[in-house]
Amino acid sequence: MTNVALLPVGKRERTKVQNRQAILDAARAVFSELGYETATVRDIIRRTGLAAGTFYNYYRSKEEVFAALSDDGARRFAPILKGLRENLRDFEAFVHEAIHAYFQFLAQEQRSWIEKRPPGEPYPHVLGETPEMAAVYAEVRTVIEAALAARQGPAADVAYMTAASIAIARDVGEKMLERRPIDTEAAADFAVTMILRGLRGLAQPKD
């Protein structure tokens, strides 16, 4: 008969949930500070305080952790976009509301993991795209493409317009997260103005 003490099923399940969340929180911080390409599994494990073996019980690589964070970010932001789609008045209103919601989402994600950092640890600058950012871009891209395809926006190349809009939101969002304090309203207003003025220019007839 074994002498190993087994945890009650309920406690084991709670421990699994806590360990998985600790890994995801650590990965979010590491990816944000170092960038995805630079970050390693060792960096993530070091931030969690868990043993390496515990990490590999849940994920086999940083790619799997990134995918898990992406899925989580998309899952949580999707209802926000769905609500905007259902109440869409026109294309410009959607762009305005979607960009503001997106920047607020990014800022909240940033605050949520910073609050979990040890007291006194230096405040980081964001050097790379987080998984949530990548996932949200994909969600926004899908909605913008659908709106443009339904002729709710100016007639122009859908792929180019979508790529340009996402690029503006991505780059402005990254700069926003580097600043202290984070000003979502100013960043969103700037991005929306750039996007809408650019689209209006495309819609104007050429001489």
TrEMBL record:
Keywords for the protein's UniProt record, in alphabetical order: DNA-binding, Transcription, Transcription regulation
DNA-binding region listed in the record: 40-59
Keyword Isomerase belongs to the record: no
Keyword Protease listed: no
SUPFAM superfamilies cross-referenced by the UniProt entry: Homeodomain-like
Domain HTH tetR-type: 17-77
Record Gene3D superfamilies: Tetracycline Repressor, domain 2
Listed GO MF terms: DNA-binding transcription factor activity; transcription cis-regulatory region binding
Domain of life of the native organism: Bacteria
Entry-linked PROSITE patterns: HTH_TETR_2 (PS50977)
Pfam families: TetR_N
Protein name: TetR/AcrR family transcriptional regulator
Biological source species: Phenylobacterium deserti
